[in-house]
Structure formats: C-alpha cells, structure tokens
Amino acid sequence: DHMQWGYLSLVMKAIERHSLRAEFVHLNHPRLVASLSPCREKVFRQVFDRPPREMLGSYCCAQFLISRSRWHANPVERYQRMLEMLFGESPEECHDIPGHSTHCLMYEVYW
To answer: Which run of H or E residues covers position 14?
Structure first.
C-alpha cells in the first residue's frame, strides 16, 4: 500500500483548520526515479508546448494535493488538452503497458 493513512489524516486536519499553507503536498512516500525517456519528453511537449528543462521525477501514484491558486495558474486549455490526450493514441515513442494509460502515468510527474 502506498498511502500513509496517518499522514493523510494529519493533512486533512490541517486543511479543515485552514492551517495548511502549501501550494503542493505529496501524499505518498515511495519515490520514483527521476528520468527522461523519449516517451516522457514527447508527452511533456504535448502538454506544455516546450521541452522539459530537467529530468522528471515525483512520488508514486499521483496522490497529491495542490492549492487552488496552483490549479488556476495553468490555462484551462492545458487541462482540456490533457483530458483529450487521455482518450487519444499514445505517441509512438511510448510502449504502452496493457491496462494503463501512458498519458496518465506521465501526468503524475508534471506538477
């Protein structure tokens, strides 16, 4: 199990009490290795219209919180494009894992 339930409870209490002042909070503890594959680079370019500036890494499984201001800092068109990409074909640079969306696997490192 990737979730630390005690930590999630603590974060939720901080939100409830309006004492969490973070733009971004990871809710998981397993760290993904930072890397940059042709697939990750292609999907990153599709999302951000530019190449990545560094290796991409994050914590596992896309379990995180972001602030409202961080959410609104991105144009709505980016979110619409990402949603459309989820239902589209993966780039040829990607080797899909059966039962998993390549785009979804890439999105977890972009925040």
So the answer is: helix 5-16
pTM, two decimal places: 0.76
Measured CA to CA in angstroms, residue 47 lies from 14, 76, 77 at distances of 32, 12, 10
Closest Cα to residue 111, out of 55, 39, 62, 45? 62
Kindly indicate the confidence band of residue 14, based on its pLDDT and cuts at 50, 70 and 90.
very high
Give the pLDDT mean for 4-17.
93
Q: What is the DSSP-derived secondary structure letter of residue 60?
A: G
Strands (E), the chain: 24-26, 64-66
**Of the candidates 49, 53, 39, 38, the residue with the CA atom closest to the CA atom of residue 82:** 49
What's 18's DSSP letter?
T
Determine whether 100 is exposed, middle or buried from the number of CB atoms within 10 Å of its CB (0-12, 13-18, 19+). exposed
